[in-house]
Write a structure and sequence with these properties.
The structure is a single chain. The chain is mainly alpha-helical. The chain has one domain. The chain is built from 16 helices and four strands. The strands form two sheets. Strands 1-2 form a two-stranded parallel sheet. Strands 3-4 form a two-stranded antiparallel ribbon. β3 and β4 form a beta hairpin.
Length: 322
């Protein structure tokens, strides 16, 4: 059974895009997402706007994964038109290029490492580290991992953490975060004023709440699940983190489509240059990747995942506070 560098090299033949597919999937998703938002603005009855809003949120999720692939250099990385299109989408989705790429790249090279900083990921610390925290620090740590925080990703992660916090850190470095916030606020106010509160909520706000809440939760369970293993120092390896602290999410096929196959997360972490549409092909072709650690898209597994709070080095597993 291949492992380490040999296993990573086995994925290299799949780290090549099909330009036709990259453009087809990018443009078609962008078209359907735009059309869905337009329908949400034009429809007047709430019982039509509601399902359209949920569809818009799901299409936003798919488009975000495609954008995320571009930022990894997996698709359309050498296309000026493609990079411009995705940079504009990053502003629309409240994940500007300057902060998204930096924080997400940090996540990939620090996956499985215990940290209370939460750069590009949810903070995860050991029992000993937790016991050394002050009362206020414990509250902040637990609040960051709370389900309300996760499902409120639109406010907590995208508006505050990615944009407001980044601007406070360095206005010059993250100027595009200011642009994203100004555009988003201007669009929100305009839609509320000209189209009314119902269309603002169902046609504009609800898609963002859906996409960002679902995306934040999906990201959470991909690295916080029963069976996840955390390592530090000489025990940490890139491939070990990819296979030991990254899950394959078992979900309906339609959700695999709407989430751009990001549920094949163990493969994505093994080689970020593999296009999203080739991830299932990799799993089918490489036996060593066919028995990953898994978590199901279900209420039961959701509850189990949120019960996990700290890493217990003695038992070698994530545990709850009790």
């Amino acid at each position: 059974m291949r492992q380490g560098k040999e296993l990573i090299l086995a994925t290299k033949p799949f780290a090549h895009e099909n330009l036709f597919k990259s453009w087809l999937y990018s443009l078609s998703t962008l078209f359907f997402m735009t059309a869905s938002f337009a329908a949400g603005f034009l429809l007047k009855a709430w019982y039509f706007q509601l399902p359209v809003a949920l569809l818009s949120g799901l299409l936003m999720s798919r488009m975000f994964v495609i954008y995320h692939d571009n930022q990894h250099g997996a698709i359309l990385h050498h296309s000026k038109m493609g990079n411009l299109m995705f940079a504009i989408y990053g502003l629309f989705a409240l994940a500007p290029v300057s902060i998204w790429k930096r924080s997400h790249d940090h996540h990939h090279v620090h996956n499985s490492k215990l940290s209370n900083t939460g750069i590009g990921a949810y903070p995860t610390i050991s029992v000993d580290m937790f016991n050394r925290l002050s009362k206020k620090e414990r509250w902040i740590y637990l609040a960051a991992r709370h389900p309300i925080t996760v499902f409120s990703g639109y406010l907590t992660i995208f508006i505050y953490n990615l944009n407001i916090h980044s601007l406070m850190y360095s206005f010059r470095r993250h100027f595009d975060c200011g642009v994203a916030l100004v555009l988003h606020i201007a669009a929100s106010v305009s839609i509320f004023y000209f189209l009314g509160p119902q269309t603002y909520f169902l046609g504009w706000l609800l898609p963002f709440l859906t996409a960002h809440g679902m995306g934040a939760y999906l990201f959470y369970i991909q690295h916080n699940f029963p069976g996840a293993v955390y390592n530090e120092g000489k025990d940490w390896t890139y491939h070990g983190a990819a296979l030991g602290t990254t899950s394959f999410v078992i979900m309906p096929k339609i959700l695999h489509w709407f989430t751009g196959n990001i549920a094949y997360h163990h493969i994505h972490h093994l080689n970020v240059r593999i296009p999203f549409y080739r991830l299932p092909e990799v799993m089918e072709s490489i036996p060593e990747l066919q028995n990953p650690k898994t978590i199901r898209w279900s209420i039961k597994d959701m509850v189990e995942a949120f019960r996990l709070k700290v890493w217990d080095s003695e038992s070698g597993r994530m545990i709850g506070l009790k």
